[in-house]
Specification:
Layout: H1 15-23, H2 28-36, H3 42-48, H4 54-66, E1 70-74, E2 81-85, H5 87-90, H6 93-106, H7 109-112, H8 118-128, E3 138-144, E4 154-160, E5 163-167, E6 177-181, H9 183-190, H10 196-201, E7 205-209, H11 211-215, H12 217-220
Parallel strand pairs: 3-6
Antiparallel strand pairs: 1-2, 3-4, 4-5, 6-7
């Protein structure tokens, strides 16, 4: 029997088909999500897409550049490139945001919470932290997920004025606040499927250290951009 393979494209003149061939290839919507969230360097894109191979990411970036959705330019550092959305790329913001809004409203939270990923959770958390709500200009918060294996169970957020950095290795600073949680509980809070207050009261999240920083966590932690979308009952 002759092997049947899927055609390389839809072969239709419809604008939906043509756009889907560019935007809907595997991983492309998530690459766009990262670019729309402000990532411009290859290394930062990798941190937001930890399960995507560097080879495939490079290929997708070249495809997006070829179709005029992004531009690539030297950043001023040796062999470093910055990726910026063009006007055509920025116009996809509504498309990607609408896709996320639909998923938040209609996809069961139990399905969402099957895909736990500490790398993505902490990277998304890092870019949504509100330093202005911190009681101190400089502080370090360590997040601990005890169920993860040693060496992968701790993450550090360092805040210095408006700058927030994420470390996978102990940066060597004194820790002002320890946040211990199951990965599922913190992900549920971050995605708006549970409240921080309820998870703390249930003992699923514990805060140890500076009381002022702990009290302000409801303000500085923030949430995922889709977390406040009303879920379909």
């Amino acid at each position: 029997m002759r092997n049947q393979t899927e055609p390389a494209n839809y072969g239709q003149f419809c604008a939906v088909a043509i756009a889907a061939e560019i935007v809907c290839s595997k991983w492309t919507p998530l690459v766009l999500r990262e670019l729309l969230s402000g990532s411009t360097r290859f290394s930062d894109l990798r941190r937001g897409l930890p399960r995507m191979s560097p080879t495939l990411l490079s290929r997708r970036l070249k495809e997006l550049e070829k179709t005029g959705i992004i531009s690539a330019r030297a950043s001023g550092r040796p062999r470093a490139v910055e990726y910026k959305l063009t006007a055509a790329g920025e116009e996809l913001r509504g498309v990607i945001m609408s896709l996320g809004t639909w998923g938040q409203r209609w996809i069961e939270s139990s399905i969402t919470l099957k895909n736990l990923d500490p790398s993505l959770l902490m990277w998304d958390m890092r870019r949504n932290i509100a330093p202005i709500s911190m009681p101190r200009d400089k502080c370090t918060v360590q997040f601990v997920y005890p169920e993860l294996r040693a060496g992968h169970d701790s993450w550090w957020l360092t805040i210095d004025g408006p700058d927030v950095d994420l470390c996978r290795v102990d940066p060597g600073y004194d820790v002002d606040l320890y946040v211990e949680s199951t990965l599922r509980s913190m992900t549920a809070v971050w995605m708006g499927h549970a409240t921080l207050k309820a998870e703390i009261e249930a003992g699923n999240i514990t805060l140890t250290g500076d009381r002022a920083i702990a009290r302000a966590i409801h303000d500085w932690l923030g949430l995922n951009v889709f977390a406040r979308e009303a879920r379909h009952s």
